[in-house]
Write a structure and sequence with these properties.
Blueprint lengths: L1 E6 L3 H12 L6 E7 L2 E6 L5 H7 L3 E7 L4 H8 L5 E4 L3 H13 L4 E4 L4 H6 L2 H4 L3 E4 L2 E8 L2 H9 L13 H11 L6 E4 L6 H8 L4 E6 L2 H18 L2 H6 L3 E4 L14 E6 L13 H25 E16 L2 E3 L4 H8 E3 L2 E3 L2 E4 L1 E4 L6 E10 L3
Parallel strand pairs: 5-6, 9-10, 9-12, 10-11, 12-13
Antiparallel strand pairs: 1-3, 1-4, 2-3, 4-8, 7-8, 13-14, 13-19, 15-19, 16-17, 18-19
The structure holds S-adenosylmethionine.
S-adenosylmethionine (SAM) binds next to helix 9.
């Protein structure tokens, strides 16, 4: 069986997420092919694409290879009434429409402008959304529930525009990249408005702990967890909304949490002041120095509270200053504290030590690191 994954706007991160999810999936991946925004996997078993798309944060759609030419396939899957289909190649689509009409079928072609067009025309249910890659034809089986993501992103009551909020899709990707089992204890020590905790709750993680230096952040996280539980009427979220939340400096967490009590720390820490692009190198360097100190002090606390082999998924920012990236130099220090960087495997590519999330026109990029405690 062959499946096509259409990747989000950070394709390398999406591919790493899929690889992480398949590392503990019962299906074996027999072969893979990665090109720009697409990843094609040949699997030993049929996939539950609906389940999979709900698990992943960085995949836009999943499609299954069809074993026939397009007119035969559409005649088989939509045997009565009007055939409705979409295909990015308009010229080919018009040709197919002609063939089907000549065979006596009434046909409507929909240009797939975006995922909303596909959803609103029920093309997934009809099996009519088609993609061709390398002369192989795929029919979409599942589309990212993007309305649910934007409801969680823009609908939540507790927000903090000053410190910024992680997009829920990226929070989900981080959780998947950490490969943390559902019964593990996850801590976000810079929880802000609680995006990582709320996403973890929707994914069925029930043992969640959040802390932040700011009282307002803790209040926002509580509000967002309660809102989510009501909104989605979800029992797991209800249980996790009683999650332990408290105010603390990340560097002092070993005074608040038991030694060796945490399985995974998944966090987007303080990233510094939002940049306008007008800052000079000295200002950026001085911000970078402050962040290095905070991160190192935090990892000194993390090593105490993590269980042996505990994992840290951590974002380290880098800043664009006059067309040059200023990196935050702290990884060697983190390693000295007792951590190893665990590279991200990516189907079809070599493993990579860190991933980079960057949107055009932003002066900040997030580098994503996975560390494992080795000083047990
Ligand atoms: C970038 S925000 C995190 C946003 C969060 N990921 C979200 O989506 O809402 C960074 C957070 O770090 C907190 N913070 C700053 N310094 C801290 C420290 N020393 N210890 C703990 N939290 C700190 C801030 O209050 C802020 O909420």
């Amino acid at each position: 069986m062959k499946y096509l994954f259409q990747l989000g706007h950070q394709p390398q991160i999406s591919a790493a997420e899929i690889t992480a999810v398949f590392s503990h999936h019962r299906t074996i991946v027999l072969s893979c092919y990665h090109r720009e925004n697409f990843l094609i996997l040949e699997t030993s078993q049929q996939l539950n694409c609906e389940d999979l798309i709900r698990t992943l944060g960085g995949t836009i759609k999943i499609a299954r290879q069809i074993g026939a030419d397009i007119p035969t396939y559409l005649n088989q899957t939509q045997p009565t009434g009007k055939i409705i289909f979409s295909l990015p190649d308009k010229k080919l689509a018009i040709n197919i429409k002609k063939q089907l009409k000549q065979a006596g079928r009434s046909v409507r072609y929909i240009e797939p402008k975006n995922t909303a067009t596909i959803l609103h025309n029920n093309l997934v249910e009809l099996g009519g959304d088609l993609t061709i890659i390398n002369n192989e034809i795929f029919a979409t089986e599942a589309i990212q529930p993007f309305e649910e993501f934007s409801q969680r992103d823009y609908g939540r009551p507790g927000s903090d525009d000053k410190s910024g909020m992680l997009p829920p899709k990226l929070a989900r990707i981080l959780i998947n990249l950490s490969q943390t089992p559902k019964d593990a204890t996850i801590l976000d020590p810079f929880c802000g408005s609680g995006t990582i905790l709320t996403e973890a709750a929707t994914m069925g993680h029930a043992n969640l702990i959040g802390s932040d230096i700011s009282e307002k952040a803790i209040k926002n996280t509580k509000e967002n967890l309660n809102w989510l539980a009501k909104q989605f009427n979800n029992l797991t979220i209800k249980q996790s909304s009683t999650t332990k939340l408290f105010q603390s400096d990340a560097a002092k967490l070993s005074n608040k949490l038991q030694p060796h009590s945490i399985d995974a720390i998944i966090t987007e820490p303080l990233l510094g002041k939002p940049l306008t692009g007008r800052e000079n190198k000295e200002q950026i360097d001085s911000q970078a120095d402050e962040l290095v100190k905070l991160y190192i002090d935090s990892f000194k606390a993390f090593v105490k509270i993590l269980k042996p082999d505990g994992v840290v998924l951590f974002i380290i920012p880098k800043f664009l200053c006059k067309n040059e990236w200023v990196e935050i130099d702290c990884v060697d220090e983190i390693k000295k504290i007792g951590f190893a960087a665990v590279p991200f495997e990516i189907f079809g590519s070599s493993p990579i030590e860190h991933l980079t999330y960057h949107r055009p026109n932003q002066h900040l990029a997030r580098t994503i690191w996975r560390f494992k405690k080795i000083n047990n």
